TrEMBL record:
Gene Ontology MF: a single term: translation initiation factor activity
Known partners and oligomeric status: Component of the translation initiation factor 2B (eIF2B) complex which is a heterodecamer of two sets of five different subunits: alpha, beta, gamma, delta and epsilon. Subunits alpha, beta and delta comprise a regulatory subcomplex and subunits epsilon and gamma comprise a catalytic subcomplex. Within the complex, the hexameric regulatory complex resides at the center, with the two heterodimeric catalytic subcomplexes bound on opposite sides.
Domain W2, chain residue ranges per copy: 463-628
Keywords: Cytoplasm, Initiation factor, Protein biosynthesis
Stated name of the protein: Translation initiation factor eIF2B subunit epsilon
Region (Disordered): 436-461
InterPro entries listed in its UniProt record: ARM-type_fold, eIF-2B_epsilon_N, eIF2B_epsilon, LbH_EIF2B3/5, Nucleotide-diphossugar_trans, W2_domain, W2_eIF2B_epsilon
GO cellular component entries: cytosol; eukaryotic translation initiation factor 2B complex
Family of the protein in this entry: Belongs to the eIF-2B gamma/epsilon subunits family.
Signal peptide range in chain numbering: none
Amino acid sequence: MSIKSKDDIIQAVVVADTFGDEFLPLSSDIPLALFPLINRPLIDYTLEFLSLGGIEETFLFCCSHTDAIKAHINQSVKDKAGWSLTMKVNVIVSESCHSFGDCLRDLDRKGILRGNFVLLEPGTLSNIKLLPIVKKHNEVANKDKGAAMTVIYQEAGIGQMGRDLNEEVVVAVNNNNRVLFHRKLGQSRDRKIEFPLEIFLENSNVSLHHNLKDTHIAICSPSVLPLFSDNFDFQSKDDFVKGLLMNEEILGSTVYCHVTKGSHFGGAITNWRMYQAISHELQNKWIYPLQPPALKAHNLKNGVVTGDKVVLNDNKKIANSIIGDNVTIGKNVQIEHSFILSNTKIADNVIITHSVIGPNCHIKANSRITASSIIGKDVVIENEQFIENSLVQSTQPENCEEKDKLGKKAFRLKLETDDDDLGALSRKLSQLHIGDSPVEESEDEAFTDSEDEELSYTQSPVPDDTKLFFTEVIDSLTRGFEDELRCENLILEINSSRYAYNVTVKEVNFNVIKAILIMSLRFPIGAQYFSQFVRLLSFFAPILKNYIRNEGAMLDCLQAIEDVAISNENVNEKWVMFTMKWFYDKDFVTEDVIMEWSKSLDTKSRFYGQVKPFIEWLEEAEEASSSEDD
């Protein structure tokens, strides 16, 4: 019986911190490693993946919330978690590190890694079989002494849910899968990529790939850590790859790649978009054998997953959401495409859509939380609060303005980022979602004359496929209106986007009409405002006619008007009255549908006060018509 030497043990390094503000305000209280992913800490999936992949020793590098992570690892060992039976986990603490690169430089100084190792970026989980890739890397390194890293990619077509738009990448490789060119596109709109001519002159065969996503997993040679130490501008793995390709002759190091296909999955929770995507993939067992906790028989109805000790007084309006342990939900609560973390209480008549509610929160009656809002730990949302596209934490931030105080334990948080940062781009997408341009002050009665409030946007929203569809729709319609394109062509674009994001007919109707109405808010306010509004609606009339075909679509239209009016405080009664009357006069909505829809409105709401004059006008017209008939 042979016994492995210490040098033969396969090691892995997991960096636990993101060093960014993508997950604020929740990340202030909960480390990413302990984020609940379908009611199980993220790090449990990561360690299970490494254990199943044949890793025998893992170094978990932590820079913040170290006591909580240590406590969880120790408790998991006591509970004899599956990974603890075959793999040793060492928690390394260094609170002085401020980047991924700093962590690797610190590891180099400690000298605890003995050979090739597997490197995982923050938030990574996978079901990829590691040992064959490690063996292949060893074979390559024996032939190419400069081979420093094998980056693992997964084959993924454009539009796949698990493919992050912020991480779009173009890679060129030769016959041996040596990386010759690597460019991270992010969400750049550049339509031209320039490849160095020498990569084609020096290689008989070059393959170009744009169908890959980064799994955030790499197999590293011992030279990787010294390379990070010698190059302090290497702050991330992407910096490392880019630096080696640019200075290949000076550094004498090369990078290779391995592409997985089929059922092999790899990815990382780098933002809320990926949190949602990976939750969906776990829920549908696409990352088997990694699985969430055993699901109860009543779960998964309408795409809902619940934890232990959940009290649902009415589950008819809960769909496509994940509910944590010990959550109490009152009557007539609507929850869609959201995450409710543990020990949270939601009172009656609350609406939560496309948002994340942190642990130990209390959402009081008649509140509405929507449009990519992130509610931090211990927040208390008072009665009848309306929160949209906001980060909310329980403690008062520095330089907090009075308008950002939502309650004794609820404060709106604002993030400052550079214009060229990906976070700034996320905010721009969010801005499109709620109206793109703040309305200027005016004496025109169509809008309130209160001072414009500065909009607060989330750094990394919880965009789902529907939101991405909405973004494409508003881009297409804006371009079509400015360039006076044929509406028939725009309908083809919209339908193409619909199939790409797999949205329902109802979502298409709602988002197309909402996009058109939001575009009207960009016009300058003045005497010509409503004439410009009419021109916009008339231009898009063929599109409206195409999508508003039945009573269900009429209801979608009315709900879009309601959503835009509620989401934009500067819009008042005159705008609502004008919009309702235009759709009614053009026969896009009928009186019967309007009257039936009006019965569902909250009579105490601001919007009901805006739409009430139009409802009364319809009733008076009906009474006058009845009198004439008599």
